[in-house]
């Protein structure tokens, strides 16, 4: 009977999650109930373990980076930086095949690199970019795919809240991950851009060329001035956060605090900072942070109870008995995370699976930083894969009615293919993830 | 923030009171963000520019973060912002959703919250009785205030869960339109 407990525990968790109960609470309750059964309905041991987990999670200063990064994003979203950036980027990408889509993705990249929040900027960028693309007669799938995929780039382009959660769970330094992400993030962004330009060349009707005479007429000096004023603020943000980590001035949490301060200063210099905006950003930050941290807390409670009922030992036994090569095991892990992404959102995926996988990854001699990069790439697909696709939900929330759900589902498929290519490149060349941290941070 | 319903009966009035309490504690929690930024940025300045790191910024930093999210958990529940997978849940009408909420919160989550709050109360009381300090840095402050915040966070969550149960009940009995 007791050997069935771990499986029943997972069954109970998924039953609760899919009946629509709050994920954080489902994790806590299923951990609690099965811990209680394991300890013969004696309350003390399980409550003691949970108390320890609450104390540990609440005392973890690294997690301060979560509200700080969320706040950075909340301020930037409301600062008006996006509007200027969108117009500036169009000056340069307007002439390219698929220029509007290229510009949109470039803007997503800059935003992803200046904030740590995932998807939150998607609404801002979508509201700006969808109307001109529709007017220009862009294919609706292409519009949807561009916004959804670009909007979720924040996972893999540093800084990223996902990494702040993933690092401690995988026992990998957050600084190493932040720096290690730079090259894979750049490759993925480049693949997105390649796809958009490629489709515009092969199937020009999907991305009709706009009239660029107005842009052509503008003198170069004016173009440069508009671009500089639009690009300086995000570049300062990037320098404030990534720069201080790389230069060894600040730990990731401290870098996040500097970034939050920089966001405030920038918003003020744009004249966008007022009480209403600050209040809205503060509420958003509190609520998003509490949501993330409660899932984290629930996850650590579930995991400790899972260990108590013998689940971890049992799982090791099962995986150990599989008798497959490390490469196959890696493929199985990644496939599990990919499939989980259809139904779960990022934080549940990381909390439930990464602690289970990590010991095997280390035993097999894989580089943990590299493995985390692969996980991040796949976690990003979870934003795009239906039925639970947060990126598509955000888009649905802001899109005009002529963009329909089927357009959106079709639109993300090519971008998922780009992600698969990026994953294969990273699997073939692990150095892409591990070289930069070694050079810059010297671990 | 809660729209002015035609609430009837003392249960609904109690739920409204609890919502208001949760909201005010939430405002307090949101305000903790400012000192968190200041403490963290100050530590960088003190270490890198003034050359003398503080003894207290690390512990104050994690305590502010912990208090921030523990006290913000209840208002996040009030605003229905704790993430859920609503593939099935979203397909139900208001009454179906209220029934799911009621069943889970009343049978499973409320008892858990009460037991957890009780355990955290003991945890804080133990720190007061023993005079325990955190032992995590040179500053080494008493452990009880932060433990008291952990208790407060879960106690407040317990109250907000109660309010949600009352809301769900009034949706099911037809005296309120939404949960």
Label this structure with key terms.
heterodimer, A: 443 residues, mainly alpha, 22 helices, 0% strand, B: 179 residues, elongated
Structural write-up:
The complex is a heterodimer of chains A (443) and B (179). Chain A is mostly helical and 443 residues long. Chain A is built from 22 helices and no strands. In chain A, helix 7 packs antiparallel against helix 8. The model of chain A has no long low-confidence stretch (mean pLDDT 89). The longest helix of chain B is centred in the middle third of the chain and has 37 residues, at 94-130. In chain B, helix 2 (33-49) runs antiparallel to helix 3 and helix 4 (94-130) runs antiparallel to helix 5. The two termini of chain B are 14 Å apart. The mean pLDDT of chain B is 90. Chain B is an all-alpha fold and 179 residues long. Chain B has five helices and no strands. Chains A and B meet through helix 1, helix 2, helix 3, helix 4 and helix 14 of A and helix 1, helix 2, helix 3, helix 4 and helix 5 of B.
Distance between the termini of chain B: 14 Å
Number of H- or I-type helical stretches of chain A: 22
- Count every beta strand of chain A, where a strand is a DSSP E run of 2 or more residues: 0
- In total, how many beta strands of chain B? 0
Major beta sheet summary of chain A: none
Radius of gyration of chain A: 23 Å
Mean pLDDT of chain B: 90
Radius of gyration of chain B: 20 Å
Q: Which class do the helix and strand fractions of chain A yield?
A: mainly alpha
